[in-house]
Structure formats: C-alpha cells, structure tokens
Amino acid sequence: MRIGVMDFPPFLFAGIRQCMAGILLSGFLIFIKKIEFPSFPNLARQALAGLLMITLGNGLVTWAEVYVPSGVAAIICSFMPVWMVLVNLTINRSELPNGLIVTGVLTGLGGIVLVFSEHLADFVNEKYQLGILLIFLSSLGWALGSVMIKRAGQKTNPFLNAGLQMIFGGLWCFVLSFLFDDLSNIHFSTTTVFSIGYLSLIGSITAFMLYTYALTKLPITIASLYAYINPLVAVVLGWVVLDEKLNFKIGIAIVVTVIGIYLVNKGYQLKTQKALDSSKL
Q1: For a FRET experiment, which of 39, 54, 201, 263 has its CA 20 to 30 Å from that of 97?
Q2: Predicted confidence (pLDDT) per residue in 69-92, tens digit
Q3: Angle between helices 70-77 and 99-117 (to 10 degrees)
C-alpha cells in the first residue's frame, strides 16, 4: 500500500483496488457459482459494512500512508482489537472491563506512545498529524464494521458479502478521491500496477474474504488476532524495502503494543468464559 501511493492518488488507488477485487469475487460467485443475488435489505447492510470496513477502515489508511511510515500505520492499526472490545462494551452496557482489560489498554497505549516518541520530529508536519488521526479512525471503523457483521449472523453467503462490501466501499473511495485527491497528474507506473494487482488478489479477495468468513465462525476477539501479526511484518518490510526506521526502541514498542492488546483480548475472553460458567450453574 505504501509503495502504491507514492506516485498515485491514494483514495483513487483504494477505490480501484477494492472495486476490482469486489467485482471479480462477486461476479464469480453470482455468474459461475450461481449464488442467489442478495435482497435489497442485505445490499443495504453490505453497503454500510463496506463504508465502515473498506472506505474508512482501508481508504483512510491508504491516504495516511502517503505521509506516515507503513510500520507506524500498522502498529496503530493493531489497536483495532481494543476498539472491538470497547465497542462490545458500549453495546452491552452491563459489561464492565476487568483489571486485565484495563491493564491491557494502558499497556497498549504505552506501546503507541513509544512509537510516537521515535517520530516526534514528524509531528511538525500537519499532514502527518492528520494521517495519525485518520489511522486511529480507520481502525475504529474496521472494528465497528466487524462487530456489525458478527452480530448480523450467518444469514447470507459470507464470501459474496465480502465482495459486495469491497464494491460499495470502493465506490465511496471514488467519491473521496473526487473530493480530496489531486487528479491532475495520474499515471500508472509498474509499481502502481503491481501494488493494485497484489492488493486486489491477496489483500482483498484472499485476506478480506477469509477474514469475513472467520467472523462468521469464530469469536470476534479470536478473529481479530491477525492484527497482532501485521505490525511485525510491516515494520520489517518497511525497513528492508523502504528504508523506514527500525531500532531497538521501536522493537520494544511493538512488543509492548502486542502484549497490551493480547491482555485486553484475554481479559475479555475470561469475562465471556465466566459468564458462560455462571449460566451453567
């Protein structure tokens, strides 16, 4: 994603990637596998999920990575499971966080602070500040969309739902592109085409489709564990490919962030298990 937006408008990049992936996946399922076309209420539900998870969850990160290193963006995005827990607690007001959840939130925030301490000089750039804010908002949008999908249940085909979400989310990205992108100098370089192709096939069709499927089969806190791996991969690849900063302090920050988010999810799982045990008594 970081490579793709270096010389291409970010929202347009996200829109092309997501619509291409969504059309390929949905077209295959509807015309080849003969899966029934969804009803209007389901289309509306997928349009909202696409807005939250694709337009906000992915599109905002795409724009932010023009100004924010990919490793920093991935570490902030790893806060997404915490958002999921907080959203769940907001929906279920009777649930209060236990000590493990509170400890995890504070630990995760400590890791984020460590990351930012290595990039204090970048904060003089207003676009960098805005990018950081948008990445936090994107992870919140992804969490809201995930919770919505999970609560909707398994009434429709999850793979077709994923394709529709990518189409709707991509269309909204085109709207944002028209409003905010500089469209005066668009050219498709080799790296841009490769990035769009890779992210369409691997990042969208494969990864997002499987994540959507996992949400229908696994507890939401388990499905969100993938967010622990992204920062490790992104920071190392950013260092190797893009010469982004990687030092001992950033390594510690990654570990602290991952530990914090793990504690939050562990605390939530313990609360869930305790509630199940109580119901059996």
Answers
A1: 54
A2: 887 888 888 778 778 777 777 776
A3: 170
